[in-house]
Amino acid sequence: MDLPSADTPLYNHPLPQIEAWLQGHGCEQDRDSLHCWTIQRDAWQAELWLDTEQLTIRYLNAGEDGRDVQRSFKYSLSRKDIESAVFAGP
To answer: Is the dihedral angle over the CA atoms 37, 34, 74, 13 positive or is it negative?
Structure first.
């Protein structure tokens, strides 16, 4: 499935394309809560949610004192910008 240009806001991507994009980055979808995803990297791990208005990511044990770090990105941002922010890690 071809994705729109990387400069296209994420809200202009059909859901199946967003899901394929996440899978292409190694994300795994939760079978019970389809809007929830997990990401595992060598240096970090995270949980990601496709909310109504935004994409939210929580980097586990990434902050001071092992606290989680949570960030949210509006779907009006381009796929390229969200990709750069999310997959760069905490």
So the answer is: positive
CA gap 35, 18 in Å, rounded: 11
* Structure confidence at residue 3 (pLDDT): 81
Q: Taking the model in full, what pTM does it have?
A: 0.89
Identity of the residue numbered 46: A
Rounded CA gap, 90 and 84, in Å?
11
Cα–Cα distance for residue pair 30/48, rounded to 1 Å: 10
Count Cβ atoms below 10 Å from residue 7 Cβ, excluding itself. 9
Ranges of beta strands (E only) in 11-79 are 28-29, 36-40, 45-50, 54-59, 69-74
- Of residues 55, 47, 52, the one with CA closest to residue 78: 55
Alpha-carbon span 74 to 9, nearest angstrom: 9
